[in-house]
Amino acid sequence: MCMKVFFAGASGAIGQRLLPLLLERGYEVLAISRSAERAARLEAAGARALVLDVFDAQGLREAMLAFRPRWVIHQLTDLPAGLDPAQMPAAQPRNARLRREGTANLVAAASAAGAERLVAQSIAWAYRPGELPLHEEQPLDLDAEGPRAISVGGVVALESAVLGAEPLEGIVLRYGRLYGPGTGSELADPRLAVHVDDAARAALLALEWGARGAYNIAEQDIEVSSAKARHRLGWQPGYHLPGVPA
Question: Is 139 helix (H, G, I), strand (E, B) or coil?
């Protein structure tokens, strides 16, 4: 029986590396995008695709009920290409809204459709300052101010919705700073980096083997510890997508 995966964010930096892994393993993937052009590219890559906005709660629910996925992937962001500093002030509120409202819609639709597991993208630099390396049990920076408060607020909303969605098994991947194809950066942050292929691999492992909870995903145990992901997911950095330029 072919396993069904509903994929929001398949045309993003991580999504483009994750989609081939899913298809290679024989999953039937329904990917959504707001853009007809991107949806066409997703279909050309081998997925089923649907033009749909994650803010359309009713449309999302109907699509999920019709497809009946076993698993759901949430890799959506609304950030400028290369994280252009000039565009970030305007992008932060949009991205926070996506994490807050878009995630809530995805969780509600997945729950209505009887999905078993949802894996969502988060970030590893939303923790409250503390002794390094930071672990998943340590609190997020709820006292943040200014632009950081906007970002952290979106992260808190996303993680609360995903991790609290029982009986849906919610998994949150707190990625380090991405580098590699499609990320806008070819240089690794020396303290908090993860290659985009390693990020995609972590999502696949979480989808197939994960248990409810949050997992740090970073190459070095400097700012954060990724011991939990290594031990429970079997994740190790250094993976590169076969046949695709790294």
Answer: coil
Opening angle at CA 1, ends 105 and 240, nearest 5: 70
Task: Indicate the pTM of the whole model.
Answer: 0.95
Q: Is 107 left (phi over 0), alpha (psi -120 to 50) or beta?
A: alpha
Report the distance separating Cα 80 and Cα 145, nearest Å. 22
H or E element in which residue 217 lies: strand 213-217
Handedness of CA 224, 195, 117, 11 (dihedral sign): positive
79 or 25, greater pLDDT? 25
How many angstroms separate the CA atoms of 17 and 22, rounded? 10
> Using CB atoms within 10 A of its CB, is residue 245 exposed (0-12), middle (13-18) or buried (19+)?
exposed
Cα angle 150-86-126, degrees, rounded to a multiple of 5: 30
**pLDDT at residue 244 greater than cutoff 80:** no
Given a cut of 50, whether residue 202 has pLDDT beyond it is: yes
Distances (CA, A) of 116 to 99, 133, 207, 245: 21, 32, 10, 33
Which tens digit of pLDDT belongs to each residue from 220-237? 999 999 999 999 999 999
Per-residue confidence (pLDDT) for residue 83, from 0 to 100 = 65
